[in-house]
Amino acid sequence: MNATAPALAGLLLTALAATAAATPPVERLRVPDGFHVEVLHDDVPNARQLALGERGTLFAGTRSDGRVWALTEDGAVAVASDLRMPSGIAFADGDLYIGAVCRILRLDDIETRLDRPPQPVVITDALPDDGHHGWKHLEFGPEGDLWVPVGAPCNICEEPDPYASILRMDPATGDFEVFARGIRNTVGFDFHPETGVLWLSDNGRDRLGDDVPACELNRVPEAGMHFGFPWIHGEDLRDPRFGSGHDPADYSPPVLSMQAHTAPLGIAFNPGGAFPERYDGALFIAQHGSWNRSSKVGYRVIVAFVEDGRVTASEPFLTGFLEGEQAWGRPVDVLFHPDGSLLVSDDRQGAVYRIRYTPSDHASQESPTP
Fold first, then answer.
1. Are 289 and 263 in contact (CB under 8 A)?
2. Strands 322-323, 326-327: parallel, antiparallel or unpaired by DSSP?
3. Using 50, 70 and 90 to split pLDDT, how confident is the model at 359?
4. Looking at residues 224-242, what average pLDDT do you find?
5. Strand pairing partners for 303?
6. By C-alpha distance, which of 78, 46, 81, 82 is closest to 62?
7. Dmax of the chain from CA atoms?
8. Under 8 Å between Cβ of 187 and 177
9. Looking at the DSSP assignment, which residues form a beta bridge with residue 219?
10. By CB neighbour count within 10 A (0-12 exposed, 13-18 middle, 19+ buried), where does 347 fall?
11. From CA 62, how far away is CA 84, in angstroms rounded?
């Protein structure tokens, strides 16, 4: 071995460690005129879903890290650990709920106990324990019920309930019902602030090529709807293995079809008041980005404009994570803070970003150029 090789290897490792620990380069990110991006936290390994406590504590779930974090002015504090993919979290009545594959857990009165978090209470451990698409996203609905997805345990397969569905759960007992089916893998949903209707993202299947099938945004106004998986993808694409004998007209089409493999995850409706008026009621969608496409797509946040239950237009909002074929960040979840700013988690950088609008910048409120 060359005598300088160990020294060079050491320098390389040092450089890589320094890069991993460096503050995310938000100066590379692009947003419409008048908006500004800043790093709120950069010490949240594998940050996934975000949730806000009643006292203002920001919580973050993780997938590979196995911990759930409370983010304070003093940094990140683990409030739960040694969990299996605890990516989904939701807050209600002083308690933090955690989705960890087959289990839904609860941390009681957590904001008063950040320095001595309680042992998790098990709400249910009766969900499927498959790791494939087993990670969760949790939300409380307008009536106080807890909404939980169960992904398909595969790329493409036919499996019985509750796979490929979204569940409505009683958070006190863990009892649940299947609310909608044919949903391959949703890791993001929200309720319209005026109508209370559920909207969700869904990741299309893999291995049909670069551009099919589309990833989806779906609207679920009533129980019993079926969105096609595994037989129909997008609006009318029959699956080559399972689609024979199935009519696309029998299933609910998406309200927005997105580029295949963009991997839409967290979504959030803007309640209005802090962004320019054109964004009031708009839906922000984090696209995690492709892992299996010949040229990368996604790695951004887009905004969909909604009117009467329809998407009238969509456009990029936060871009710059993808530079050529290199992606330095991957947005996962979006959450509107009570102060009107938009929070975005990034599981590659282990960071949470805050996007603010500053009217004094005299920014144009016309449509930004995509």
1. yes
2. antiparallel
3. confident
4. 98
5. 284, 315
6. 46
7. 70
8. no
9. 199
10. buried
11. 9
Q: DSSP labels for 317-351?
A: EEB-SEETTEES--EEEEEE-TTS-EEEEETTTTE
CA nearest neighbour of 181 among 110, 252, 84, 272: 252
Q: What pLDDT, on the 0 to 100 scale, is given for residue 207?
A: 96
CA 1 to chain centre: 47
Q: pLDDT digit string (tens) for 5-23?
A: 333 333 333 333 333 457 9
Reading the block at residue 160, the tokens are: 């019985």
pLDDT of residue 74: 87
Q: pLDDT grade, residue 177 (50/70/90)?
A: very high
Residue-wise DSSP of 265-281: EEEEE--SSSS-GGGTT
Cβ neighbours around 293 below 10 Å, total: 17
pLDDT digit string, tens, across residues 319-352: 999 999 999 999 999 999 999 999 999 999 999 9
Residue with tokens 């308690």: 95
Distance, CA of 83 to CA of 100 (rounded, Å): 7
Site of tokens 């909608």: 180
Instruction: Give the three-class secondary structure for 75.
Output: strand
The residue type found at 56 is G
Residue 231, Cβ density class (10 Å: 0-12 exposed, 13-18 middle, ≥19 buried) = buried
Structure tokens at 63: 């997938």
